[in-house]
Design brief:
Elements (H helix, E strand, L loop, with lengths): L3 H16 L6 H6 L4 H15 L8 H13 L10 H4 L5 E7 L4 E8 L2 E9 L6 E9 L2 E9 L3 E8 L2 E9 L9 E8 L5 E8 L3 E8 L2 E9 L6 E8 L6 E8 L4 E7 L2 E8 L12 E8 L5 E8 L3 E8 L2 E9 L6 E8 L5 E8 L4 E7 L2 E8 L9 E6 L6 E7 L7 H4 L4 H4 L1
Antiparallel strand pairs: 1-2, 2-3, 3-4, 4-5, 5-6, 6-7, 7-8, 8-9, 9-10, 10-11, 11-12, 12-13, 13-14, 14-15, 15-16, 16-17, 17-18, 18-19, 19-20, 20-21, 21-22, 22-23, 23-24, 24-25
Helix pairs in contact: 1-3, 3-4
Length: 420
C-alpha cells in the first residue's frame, strides 16, 4: 500500500506545480492551514487525475479515495486506530508539511475534529508519529510511536490524563528492559498506580498516595531470582522507605524496618523446621541498627533451641553470648568478649555440671584461666592458671579453698554472696 509519505509527496509535487500559477497564494500554503478552504479542491483535482478520474459520484469519490489512501496506514494492533473507529468515507482530511520537518494531518467528521496526526518527516525529534484523538472537541487519547519501537498511549478524561500505557514493540523487545508499563492517574491528574512487566518475567506494582509512592510489590513470576515476592512500604508524609518484606524461594521471609529512611531493625524467619522445608539451621534472627544504619546487635534462635546474642561497635563484634535452652550441648552458656580490634579478649563457659571457666587473652594469646568447681567434685573451689605468652604453656597453677581466699580482682567476677 502507498504510504502517507509517498502518497502525500506525490500530491504535493503536483500541487506545487499547479500553484506556480498563483504566486500570491504560496505563502499561505507553506505557513498555515488557513489555505485549506481553497487548496483542498485543487489537491482533490490532482488526486482525481492521478487515480484515473471521477466515477459516477464525481469529485467526491476521488476525494474519499485519496483520504482513504492517506489514512489507511499500518498501526500497531495493540492500539486502536481512527480507521477502526470512524467511517473513512465520511472523513474530511487536510494535510500540511510544516517548516519544522513534521507533517500535520487533521481529520474531521461532521465538521468536528476527530484526530490530528503529526508525522516525523525529517525533524530532529525522537518520535515517528503523534496522533491525538477527540470526541466532541475534547481530546480523549494520544498515541505516540517512537523511533526506538516503543509506543505510548495516553488516555484523557475531562482534560486530565487518567492512564498511560507504554509497550516496547521494538525488534525482539530490545529497546527497553520492560515489555509494558501502565500508569494510572486520579481525576486531578495525580499519579495513583503503575504496573511494569519486565522482559525477564518479573512484575512490579506501585501504589501512590498524593503523588508519593506508598507501596511497591515485585513478583518473580518466571523464577529468575532467589526471591518470589518483595513488598516495600513508604511513609505517607515524606515518601521515605519504612518497611520491606521479602519472601525467598527457600521459604525464608525477611522484614526490614526503617526509621527516617535508615535501616533500624531486620527480622528473618526460616521455613517450618521439618526435614523437607527448613532451609537453615536457625528458626529466626533479629538484628538492630543504630541511627547511621550500622549493626548494633543480633539475636539468633537455632532449630535445636540454642540462642546466640551478638553485640557490635562500629561494625566490629564486641560480645557473643550463647545459651543452650534446648539442652542439646554439654554446656549451659558461653560468653566471648573481643577487644577494639575484634580480637578475642575473654571467654567464659558454664557447663551442665555448673563448672565455671573463664579464660583471659592478651593480644589473642592465653593469659589467665580461672576455674570454679560448681558441683564440689574437686578439693578446691577455685583454680587459677597463668600462661607464658611466648610458649602458650602453663606458667603457674594456684588453687583456693573458697572464694574468700580468692584475690578480689578475680572474686569480683562471681556472685560472692551466693558462693560464701
Amino acid at each position: 500500500m502507498t504510504t502517507i509519505h509517498t502518497r502525500l509527496g506525490d500530491a504535493w509535487t503536483h500541487l506545487s506545480a499547479f500553484l506556480d500559477q498563483f504566486d500570491h497564494a504560496r505563502p499561505l500554503l507553506e505557513t498555515d492551514l488557513r489555505f485549506t478552504g481553497w487548496w483542498l479542491p485543487a489537491l482533490t483535482h490532482l488526486a482525481q487525475k492521478d487515480m484515473g478520474g471521477a466515477d459516477s459520484t464525481g469529485q467526491e469519490t476521488a476525494q474519499v479515495s485519496l483520504f482513504a489512501d492517506l489514512f489507511v496506514v499500518a498501526e500497531p494492533t495493540n492500539f486502536q486506530t481512527v480507521e477502526q473507529v470512524f467511517d473513512v468515507a465520511e472523513l474530511q482530511s487536510t494535510s500540511v508539511l510544516r517548516n519544522d520537518g513534521t507533517q500535520r494531518e487533521d481529520f474531521q467528521l461532521d465538521d468536528q475534529t476527530v484526530a490530528i496526526r503529526y508525522t516525523n518527516v525529517d525533524a530532529d525529534v525522537a518520535w515517528d508519529s503523534v496522533t491525538n484523538y477527540y470526541d466532541a472537541g475534547e481530546r480523549v487519547s494520544k498515541l505516540t510511536t517512537y523511533d526506538t519501537g516503543v509506543m505510548r498511549e495516553d488516555t484523557f478524561a475531562n482534560g486530565q490524563r487518567v492512564k498511560t500505557l507504554q509497550r516496547d514493540q521494538s525488534e525482539e523487545g530490545g529497546a527497553k528492559a520492560w515489555t509494558t508499563v501502565e500508569t494510572q492517574y486520579d481525576p486531578d491528574g495525580t499519579l495513583t498506580a503503575r504496573t511494569t512487566q519486565y522482559d525477564n518475567g518479573t512484575s512490579r506494582e506501585e501504589t501512590f498516595d498524593g503523588g508519593l509512592r506508598s507501596v511497591v510489590t515485585q513478583n518473580d513470576v518466571e523464577n529468575v531470582f532467589s526471591w518470589t515476592e518483595i513488598t516495600t512500604q513508604y511513609t505517607a508524609t515524606s515518601g521515605q522507605l519504612s518497611q520491606r518484606s521479602t519472601r525467598y524461594d527457600d521459604g525464608m521471609e525477611r522484614v526490614d524496618f526503617y526509621d527516617s529512611g535508615t535501616l533500624s531493625v531486620v527480622t528473618k524467619v526460616d521455613a517450618p523446621n521439618t526435614t523437607t522445608q527448613s532451609a537453615y539451621a536457625w528458626s529466626n534472627i533479629i538484628q538492630f541498627h543504630d541511627n547511621a544504619g550500622q549493626l548494633v546487635s543480633r539475636g539468633t534462635t537455632f532449630d535445636d533451641g540454642m540462642f546466640r546474642g551478638e553485640d557490635f561497635d562500629a561494625g566490629l563484634r564486641t560480645l557473643i553470648t550463647e545459651q543452650d535452652f534446648g539442652n542439646t550441648r554439654s554446656w549451659r552458656s558461653i560468653e566471648r568478649a573481643f577487644d577494639t580490634d575484634g580480637v578475642i579478649a575473654s571467654r567464659r563457659i558454664i557447663d551442665d555440671t555448673l563448672d565455671d571457666t573463664i579464660m583471659f587473652y592478651d593480644s589473642g594469646k592465653r593469659d589467665t584461666r580461672i576455674e570454679m568447681d560448681g558441683n564440689g567434685s574437686d578439693d578446691w573451689q577455685f583454680r587459677i592458671t597463668t600462661y607464658d605468652p611466648e610458649t602458650d604453656t602453663d606458667n603457674a597453677v594456684t588453687t583456693y579453698a573458697n572464694i574468700t581466699d580468692l584475690p578480689e580482682i578475680y572474686a569480683s567476677l562471681y556472685d560472692q554472696d551466693a558462693l560464701i
